[in-house]
Amino acid sequence: MKNPLFKKELALLATLLFAAFGVRMIFFSNIGYSNDTQTYQAWFNTAATHGIRVFYNVVGWCDYPPFNVYFFWLFGVLARSLSLFGSNLFVYIMKLLPNLFDVATAGLIFFFVQKRLNLKWALLATGAYAFNPAVIFDAAVWGQFDAVYTFFLMLSLMLVFHNKPKLAIICFTLGILTKPQSIALAPLLIFLIYRKFNWRGLFISLLTAILTVIIVILPFEWSNPVMFLSNIYLGAYQGYSFTTINAFNLWGFGGMWQPETVASFISGWLLFLAAAALAVYFVHKNFSKSNEIAVLFAAFVLFFAFFMLPTRIHERYLFPAIAVLASLIPFLKKIRPLYIVLTATCLVNQAYVLSFLNAGTFIQADDPVALSVSLINTIAFLYVLMIIVKELWGNLQLNPFKNADSVPGENKHTCSSTNEI
Q: d(Cα 113, Cα 324) in Å, to the nearest integer?
């Protein structure tokens, strides 16, 4: 017989998620960026009409990796069965996909927090993400698909926590096959699998990743799998050789869409690799404590650094950092103001860029909004690096997470990770 308390918790979660999805549906009628909507409609229609196998041969141009095509086909068939192609109602089908994944991510946050703290904190963290205006804008207003790969990355971390490396690497690989920026999590995930399951576990995980890729691309028409994937990934990446693609980050001080140089490309990636090494070292120093919170904080640093430092970054690439931060709200007091700040900058970045895209104009190099938000994001990033440096080499070096955070209500679970940076 199921615990009545468990049923009550599920009912509360379902109510919260249903309400969050209802809020999102209010914005479904918004066209977002008309060029994006028309492109998605063409991709959905092509997949539904011609199938998965010849999609890339028929569509003409598509810079989305192959796992997306399965979604294009499924929701395209739904749109065609409802005669929505060419109709203003198509946008509802297009936005249904990312918003379902968005709500699913909120569910992951709930179960992670509820298992380690209590129902009140779980609902708070879940609500903070589910009703986050920047998150809602991305999926419900603009209709972008960032929620899809974010779900797979969050799930991969949760599976590593539960000692399921093969399932974790499958989810991570699906993230890569959805959006290439998922690669930001790779250094941390590789380190975790190696430390928890040694070289053998890492080797098996690598084979699992390769097998996952083969299974996903097998239905497509290709003669050489390496060339098939490289043409998709490198072709898309090479088409954006600019310092920043409307991302208000470190490169935003020089203006949007500035031509990338070899020096800027190399320096951007070197800075990211340095930040990634610092984040992984941070987890290494805390690994003996089996501290899941340290892992999530490192994942946040990777996502934030990936948005701030490399070139060719789009305005939406901060998206997964919001999900990780939301799951950390109950545990780390110092990130709560950061969550508010990054929510604001992420929302402003997206909304401001979308207004220029729909107007058919470009953001100027001296634009005060772009410069101001770039500055705020830079200060926030330096603040995050300061936290890590202080924890590693400051007064708290021996126990970076030693001061227990207060939890409202009565704790149902005790866990060493309910501590404070």
A: 12
**Which of 226-230, 286-290, 301-305 ranks highest by mean pLDDT?**
301-305
In sequence order, what are the beta bridge partners of 144?
none
**How far is it, in rounded angstroms, from Cα 141 to Cα 95?**
8
- Cβ atoms of residues 24 and 139 within 8 Å: yes
Note whether 121 and 170 are within 8 A (CB).
no
Crossing angle (nearest 10°) for helices 186-217 and 165-176: 70
Retrieve residue 418's tokens: 């309910």
Burial of 35 (0-12, 13-18, 19+ CB in 10 A): exposed
Cα–Cα dist 197/60, whole Å: 43
Beta pairing, strands 419-420 & 244-245: unpaired
pLDDT tens-digit readout, 153-192 = 999 999 999 999 999 999 999 999 999 999 999 999 999 9
Query: Structure pTM?
Result: 0.91
Phi then psi dihedrals of residue 299, to 5 deg = -60, -40
**Closest Cα to residue 406, out of 106, 118, 80?**
118
Give the tens place of pLDDT for each residue, 44-65: 999 999 999 999 999 989 999 9
Amino acid occupying residue 245: I
Question: In this structure, what are the phi and psi dihedrals at residue 249, rounded to the nearest 5 degrees?
Answer: -125, -155
Residue pair 208/166 in contact (Cβ under 8 Å)? The answer is: yes
Answer whether 67's CB lies under 8 Å from 178's CB: yes
Q: How far is residue 230's CA from residue 159's CA, in Å, rounded to a whole number?
A: 28
Domain ranges of the chain: 32-239, 240-393
* Bridge partners, 404 (sequence order): 419
Q: What single-letter DSSP state applies at residue 58?
A: H
d(CA 381, CA 305): 8
Residue with tokens 């009409």: 49
Tell me the sheet residues that pair with 284: none
